[in-house]
Amino acid sequence: MPSKRKAAKKEIQPEKSAQEEHPRVEESEAKPVTQVVEVVEEEIVPSAEVAPSQLETLEENEVVENKSDVMDAAKEEVRKEMVDELFDEPNAPVLPEISVHKKSAVNPLIMWVLIVLVVAGITGGGLYIIIQKSALPLPFLAAEPTPTPMPTPTPTPMPAKREDISIQVLNGGGTPGAAGKMKKLLEEKGYTVADTGNTDEYTYEKTEILVKPGKEAYIALLEEDLKDAYTLGSTSATLSSDGSYDAQVIVGKE
């Protein structure tokens, strides 16, 4: 392919030195420098006909060049990352998270006082409800009045009177006239002697007194009247209640 070249001259001005920025430094006179730059212009004269194989070759060359550019860009990116990693500061160590537990501002004593008050309130309320319920009238539980048994009046014993009893006098010692002698003494004291007689056997050494049940008061009265004249033996309230006499006096051998 024919090519044409043109020569051109370009005048390049020298750069200002750092002395121009400071007024205190004397400016030096810069001499112009002439540099020759050669510019080459190429003319590409396409041929009249291009073969299809040449077109495919050109397209493959363009694809290869594009792939090469992409690979170069990727390599450049990797290089930059490696440089950045080298100059990056090491990561700071991860410190464990420390949790701070704040103490409750509530005084434990106050908390216990509140608990005691709550429990006392609940207990008091429960007792109040129970008392109120127990005070309500319950008709189905009404107790029927129980009749109080009347005490049976105990008869006051009447003072023993000598004339109120009838006495039988028996001779139990075998001494003749002993029954008559006892009868006379008793009648002198005020007793009523209804009968005299003898026992089946004369085995009584001392004088004995027998009365019916319920007539015990006369025992003491007879003892009082006979103790000075006779030696008294046993006394009892074993006389048959069906008998004709209230009392029986058996005279002993004395």
UniProtKB/TrEMBL annotation:
Query: Where in the sequence does UniProt note compositional bias of the Basic and acidic residues kind?
Result: 9-30
Instruction: Note down the stretches annotated as region Disordered.
Output: 1-32
Q: Matching InterPro entries, A to Z?
A: LytR/CpsA/Psr_C
The LytR/CpsA/Psr regulator C-terminal domain covers which part of the protein? 164-253
Record's keyword terms, sorted: Membrane, Transmembrane, Transmembrane helix
Which positions, given as ranges, span the membrane?
Answer: 109-131
Looking at the keywords, is Cytoplasm present?
no
> Which positions make up the signal peptide?
none
Quote the protein name from its UniProt record. LytR/CpsA/Psr regulator C-terminal domain-containing protein
Q: What is the lineage of its organism?
A: Bacteria, Candidatus Gottesmaniibacteriota
